[in-house]
Amino acid sequence: MSDTPVTFGWESLNSLLSDGVATLVREHWKEIALDQEKVPLAIDWRAMLEEEKIGRFRVFSARRNGELIGYVAFKSFRPERYSTTLYINDDVFWLAPEERKGLTGYRMLKAAIAALPRPCKLQFKEKIGFQDGRVGTLLERLGLQPVEMLYSAFLE
C-alpha cells in the first residue's frame, strides 16, 4: 500500500479487459472459489458486455497510479414480484491483497454506493470463511444489514 491517492469511478468492461482484468478475475477465483473442481471459471465476456450495453451490468474501480487495485461489479434488475423497484446486486468485489489492511476497500465501497442510482434496493453477498476478514464488517459500517443467508450445494 502506498500514500499515493486512489481514484474511483465507473469504467467500461472493454477498458478493463484491455487493462488485463481477466487475469485478476482468474486470480481472485483461485483465491476464493470453494468448489473449483466442480464449477470451473468460464466467463462469457460477450454476454457481460451485452448486459453492460443495456444498463444491467456496471463496474466501479479503484486505481492507484493508474494501476487497477480494486473493483466491484453490480447487476441491476427489476424482479417480477417487485417490478417497480430497481434491485442492484453485487456481482463481485475484489481488492488487491496489499490494499486489504487499510481503508481502500471501505472508501471504494462507499464511493460505489454513493454513485448508484436512487431509489434502489442494494444487496451484497459475503463469502463465508474468507481469511482476509469479513466484507460484511465494511458493509455494516456503510449502513447495510445482514438479512438473508445463502446455502449452496453442487448437485450431481
* Spatial sequence of strands, sheet with the most strands: 1-2-3-4-5
What structural class is derived from the secondary structure elements?
A: alpha+beta
CATH class: Alpha Beta
What value does the average pLDDT take? Answer: 94
Word description of this protein:
The chain contains five helices and five strands. The protein is globular and about 45 Å long. It has a single domain (6-141), classed as Gcn5-related N-acetyltransferase (GNAT) (Aminopeptidase, 3-Layer(aba) Sandwich). A hairpin with a 2-residue loop joins β2 (57-64) and β3. 29% of the residues lie in helices and 24% in strands. By secondary structure, the chain is an alpha+beta fold. It has helices at 13-18, 21-32, 45-53, 104-115, 135-141; strands at residues 6-11, 57-64, 67-77, 87-95, 121-123. The chain has a five-stranded mixed β-sheet with strand order 1-2-3-4-5, sandwiched between helices.
List the defining traits of the structure above.
single chain, Aminopeptidase, 156 residues, five-stranded mixed beta sheet, alpha+beta, 5 helices
